[in-house]
């Protein structure tokens, strides 16, 4: 999966569009052409996916459950753990508006991918799974929309604030893992979200019609974090 993510990212950087996959100028990204299929129902890989969900369910602590429920919010401000208390919607209107636009774009792309694969969520597959939330019956499992948003946001934030890159991606990992803790996604759903978010984030960084909002949010965010307008260049 990691090799596929890197390959997809290299293709994105090297070309303005992938044939039948990504259209230029901000048009839809066909994730069904870029992501691997989920494990087939009844396969050994699908069984392993379910066993991980059940193992996490057995070991999840009250604190982990609380944190996972808090991460049900699809918001860039969940990254305050990584960027600090200055990351507040009330004082960062341009950042809030930019990432709301990102969330809407992500949601539309993931909806099409979910409908393409129509993978049932863990509680539907097994009555041994006891989820911490009830998902919509027509909201399929693969890929994870929350994980996709988490990694899309991480790509964008890490380019805005490269000084915090490691903490940002660690938070994205936890954001995705919390979907397994919730019992509403398989690990492979989260991994597909990581890949999807990487592809979407890389594409948005190149789209001319996103640049003005991106730069405005970047400037606002760096000022709030008391960082110079541009990060220092590393050799």
Automatic annotation (TrEMBL):
It comes from Dyella japonica DSM 16301. Its EC number is 3.1.3.2. InterPro entries: Acid_Pase_classA_bac (IPR001011), PAP2/HPO (IPR000326), PAP2/HPO_sf (IPR036938). Gene3D superfamilies: Phosphatidic acid phosphatase type 2/haloperoxidase. GO terms for molecular function: acid phosphatase activity; undecaprenyl-diphosphatase activity. The keyword S-adenosyl-L-methionine does not apply. Residues 92-205 form the Phosphatidic acid phosphatase type 2/haloperoxidase domain. SMART domains: acidPPc. Keywords: Hydrolase, Signal. Belongs to the class A bacterial acid phosphatase family. Residues 1-19 form the signal peptide. Pfam families: PAP2. One of its GO terms (cellular component) is outer membrane-bounded periplasmic space. This is Acid phosphatase. It catalyses: di-trans,octa-cis-undecaprenyl diphosphate + H2O = di-trans,octa-cis-undecaprenyl phosphate + phosphate + H(+); a phosphate monoester + H2O = an alcohol + phosphate.
């Amino acid at each position: 999966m990691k090799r596929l993510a890197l390959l997809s990212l290299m293709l994105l950087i090297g070309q303005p569009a992938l044939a039948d996959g990504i259209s230029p100028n901000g048009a839809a990204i066909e994730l069904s052409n870029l992501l691997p299929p989920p494990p087939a129902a009844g396969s050994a890989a699908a069984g392993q996916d379910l066993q991980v969900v059940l193992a996490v369910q057995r070991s999840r602590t009250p604190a982990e459950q609380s944190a996972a429920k808090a991460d049900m919010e699809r918001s860039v401000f969940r990254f305050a753990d990584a960027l600090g208390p200055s990351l507040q919607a009330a004082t960062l209107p341009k950042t809030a508006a930019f990432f709301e636009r990102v969330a809407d774009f992500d949601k539309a792309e993931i909806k099409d991918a979910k409908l393409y694969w129509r993978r049932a969520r863990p509680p539907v597959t097994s009555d041994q799974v006891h989820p911490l939330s009830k998902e919509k019956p027509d909201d399929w499992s693969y890929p994870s929309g929350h994980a996709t948003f988490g990694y899309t946001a991480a790509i964008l934030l890490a380019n805005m604030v490269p000084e915090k890159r490691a903490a940002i991606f660690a938070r994205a990992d936890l954001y995705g893992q919390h979907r397994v803790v919730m019992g509403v996604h398989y690990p492979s759903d989260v991994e597909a979200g990581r890949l999807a978010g990487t592809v979407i984030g890389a594409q948005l960084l190149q789209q001319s019609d996103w640049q003005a909002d991106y730069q405005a949010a970047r400037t606002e965010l760096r000022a709030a974090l008391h960082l110079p307008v541009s990060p220092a260049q590393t050799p």
